[in-house]
Amino acid sequence: MQKLKIYLVDDHKLFREGLKLLLSTQDFVHHIYEASNGREFLENLSLVDCDVVLMDIEMPEINGIDATREALKIKPGLKIIVLSMYGDEQYYYQMIDAGAKGFMLKNTGIENVITAIKKVASGENFFSEELLFNILNTMRGAKNEPENRDSELSEREMEILCHVCKGKSNQEIADELFISKRTVDKHRANLLSKTGCRNTAALVMYAIKNKMIDV
């Protein structure tokens, strides 16, 4: 893959510098930019060329939700991965609505960070399994009622949805189910249409909230 330019946005300097040090040793990383809050990030975004942003949620000045929303107005193709702490579940839907493409916990290993960056950079979404468990448990505790669905999903669509929630790409799903990628593309589009979701990230959250999958 091409070398990537990454932007780290986090108000904890020690965490930011530690992650920068680890990522700088990877051969796919070309350059790493840093910002200590959303305002600093947005003020410099138009001056730099970056591919993937690792975004904290709770920061002074401008938080990660607003920073993500504003950043995508400046650069619509920007790929943003959320750096989450335990207890941030209340913000997940807002970050998805803002346009985030991936989510991971801050205590994850560098291998997962690398996987997330590569997947999101290539156009996929990434959700850490641990984070999905957190979201699921939070929803169970809140006793959320399932949303009404206008159209029931077919057995094949449910199968595709299960694989999507595991973070698999359309090609990976096609290979596993012995069908064409074009067929998977069509099923995925139908899933978005039937559920009213704008993107894959929202689709995963929808599936969990409506108890359509077992995480």
Please explain how this structure is put together:
The structure is a single chain. The chain has 10 helices and 6 strands, in the order E-H-E-H-E-H-E-H-E-H-E-H-H-H-H-H. With 215 residues, it is of the alpha/beta class. A 6-stranded parallel β-sheet has the order 2-1-3-4-5-6. Helix 5 (110-121) links the parallel strand 5 (102-105) and strand 6. Helix 2 (38-45) runs parallel beside helix 3 (64-74), helix 3 runs parallel beside helix 4 (92-98) and helix 7 (155-165) crosses helix 9. The radius of gyration is 17 Å and the shape is globular.
Number of helices: 10
State the strand order across the main sheet: 2-1-3-4-5-6
- How would you describe the oligomerization state of the chains in this entry? single chain
Which segments are poorly predicted (pLDDT under 50) over 5 or more consecutive residues?
Answer: none
| N/C terminus separation | 30 Å
Radius of gyration, CA atoms, in whole angstroms = 17 Å
Question: Averaged pLDDT, please?
Answer: 83
Tell me about the largest β-sheet. Answer: 6 strands, parallel
- Give the tally of β-strands: 6
Estimate what percentage of residues fall within beta strands: 5-15%
Class by SSE composition: alpha/beta
Order of helices and strands: EHEHEHEHEHEHHHHH
Give the helix proportion (percent range). 40-55%
Shape: globular
